[in-house]
Amino acid sequence: MGDLHNNGGFAENQLSVHHGSLLDFLLFSSPMDDIFTCILSWTSYLRRRFIDFVENLVVQDVYRSKGSVSVSSTSYTEYFNSGTCQTSSGQGKEFLANTDSGIVNTNRSMQLRQAVPFIFQGLAFPFLALRLAWSSILVPWRFAFCYVKRTQAQVYSIISRMERTLRGSSDDIGWLQRTPGMAPVEDGTARFLELLEAIRNGEHTLPNSFVYLFVPGLFSNHGPLYFVATKKFFSKMGLTCHIGKIHSEASVEHNAWELKQYIEELYWGSGKRVMLLGHSKGGVDSAAALSIYWSELEHKVAGLALVQSPYGGSPIASDTLREGQIADKETRRIFELLICKTIKGDMRALEDLTYEKRRVHHEA
Length: 364
Description:
Layout: E1 3-6, E2 9-10, H1 32-65, H2 73-82, E3 84-88, E4 93-98, E5 102-106, H3 108-167, H4 175-178, H5 189-200, E6 210-215, H6 228-236, E7 240-243, H7 252-270, E8 273-279, H8 281-292, H9 294-297, E9 301-307, H10 315-321, H11 328-342, H12 348-351, H13 355-363
Parallel strand pairs: 1-3, 6-7, 6-8, 8-9
Antiparallel strand pairs: 1-2, 3-4, 4-5
C-alpha cells in the first residue's frame, strides 16, 4: 500500500519523476529506447493507480463496517497522498499515521479478510441480477408447461373413459362359456318351443310329486302381479306351487339364507321335495342357496330351473357400476338413491350381478 519507511528516510517512487498529468506520458519525442521506457512507466503508473483505488475501497469498507474505530475521509486522502506507512517488525502490525485522527492500529490480514466479502458482493451483483432475470423469465414458462401437462392428462383421461364406456361388457360376455372345464352349451330353443306349445294345449309331463317354488327376480316386490298368472296356470294343472316371499333387492347371500328356510318349511309341511324355478336374479339366489347349503338341502330339493337368469353376470349391472367410465360416480349415486333410499334395498343386490362378482362366486 505504499513505500516502506526505512532508516528515517523515504525511498523515491519509481514514478517520482512523473508528477505531471497523464498527458506527459504521451509526448514521445525521445528516441526509441525512451519511447519503450515511457510505455513501461505509463503501464506501471496505471497499474499502481488501479491498485491504490481498490485498496482505498477496501479500507473504506473495513472502517465503515467497524463501528469502534472512526477515521475521517481526510485521513484516507492524506495517507494515500503521503504514500507512507510504518511497519513494526516485532508485532507484525501496521500503523496508519495522520495528524487528524492519530494512529489507528489494525491488522492488514484482518482488513483484507473483512474486505473480501465486500469485493465479492460487488462482483456477484451482476450475476445475481442475471439469475433473478432468468428466474423471472422461467416462471411463466414453468406455469405454462404445468398447465399444458395437466390439460394433456385430462384429455387422456377423458379419452380413456370414453373408450371404456363404449367398449362396455364386450370382453366379459360369454366368459363362463369360455372357462376351461365347462360342459359345452347346447341350444335347446327348438325343444323349449315344442314343450311350450304342448303345455298350452293342456299337455304336460310335470309330475305332481313335487312342490314348485317360484323365486322372483330383482325389483319383483314392487310388481303386485309378478308370477300371479304363472301360479294360476300351474294350479289349473293340479300342481302345488308357491311364490317365494323374499326381499328381491337384498344381496344374493342374504336371499340364499331366506330360500334355505323356505325350502325346509315347504319340505316339512308337505313331505314333498321342492322344485325351484328362478327367474332373473331369483335364479342366481336359488343357485347360491343350493351351493352354500347343499349338505342340508340335498335330500329336500328335486331340481333347479333357471329362466333368464344372469348366472354368469349381467351387462346392464356391469355397465352401470363399472368404474373408470364417463359419469361412473354420478351413475352410482343415482342407483344408491334409488335402491337404498327409495325402495330400502341393498346396493349389493345389483353388485352381485356384475361379471366381476359372478367370477368370484364361480371360483369360490
